Amino acid sequence: MNHEPTGTVAIVYESMFGSTRRIGEAIAEGLGAGQQVTLIPVRDAHSLPDDLSVLIVGAPTHAHGLSRPESRVDAVKWAANEQMDLELEPEFDAPGIREWLKQYEPQVARHVAFDTRVDMPRIFTGSAAAAIDRRMSKLGSRRLAEPMSFLVDRNSHLEAGEIDRAKRWGAELAAALAPTAAH
Q1: Could you tell me the fold of the domain covering 8-177?
Q2: In the chain, where the domains are located
Q3: What DSSP string runs through the chain?
Q4: Longest Cα pair distance anywhere in the chain, in angstroms?
Q5: What is the mean pLDDT of residues 25-49?
Q6: What is the rounded distance in angstroms from the CA atom of residue 131 to the CA atom of residue 98?
Q7: Residue 83: how many CB atoms within 10 A of its CB?
């Protein structure tokens, strides 16, 4: 079944070591041809497409929520630890989603939030996605889907199967955005 695109989906993400970026890419792939998808690192998210259907926002979970300048400094220390085998993303030192949401205050009708977090019970890790969802809701946006967490190990590497899970979730989001889903 072919669907005409219903507008643009923008995925704005923050990523320290690439896991959150890779999840964003997988969600975009899962959304498929039925959606026009724009993937934007937070450092480049100064404006959003005019015909935005939904804004998907993702970030790594740092200290139970969104990253802060101090937690981004810690990320540099982690990358310096050879045993962790981490490589910093080009935008690691740019302002993150926390700052972007405060400065930009995106005005969109619908949103979805995702994060990457350590594979432990959420009560211990917190969730950047929950923080994003709360902030977007306060800005007047409606949630299209529940916030979603994708899991990394203690060394910030994606757990097996998480990319495929993100693709499937992207397909579920596409189905929710399909014109027939609105009726």
Answers
A1: Rossmann fold (3.40.50)
A2: 8-177
A3: ------SEEEEEE--SSSHHHHHHHHHHHHH-TTSEEEEEEGGG-SS--TTEEEEEEEEE-BTBBS--HHHHHHHHHHHH-GGG-----TTTTS--HHHHHHHH----SEEEEEEEEESS-HHHHB-HHHHHHHHHHHTTPEESS--EEEEE-TTSPBPTTHHHHHHHHHHHHHHHHSGGGG-
A4: 53
A5: 92
A6: 9
A7: 6
Residue 162's contacts (CB-CB under 8 Å, 6 or more residues apart) are 23, 150, 151, 152
pLDDT the model gives residue 47: 87
One-letter amino acid of 54: V
pLDDT in tens, 43-87: 999 889 888 989 999 999 998 889 888 888 888 888 888 888 888
Residues paired with residue 112 on neighbouring β-strands, in sequence order: 56
95 vs 82: CA distance, rounded Å: 25
Cα separation, 65 vs 133, whole angstroms: 11
Backbone angles phi, psi at 32, to 5 degrees: 75, -170
**CA 166/CA 172 separation, integer angstroms:** 10
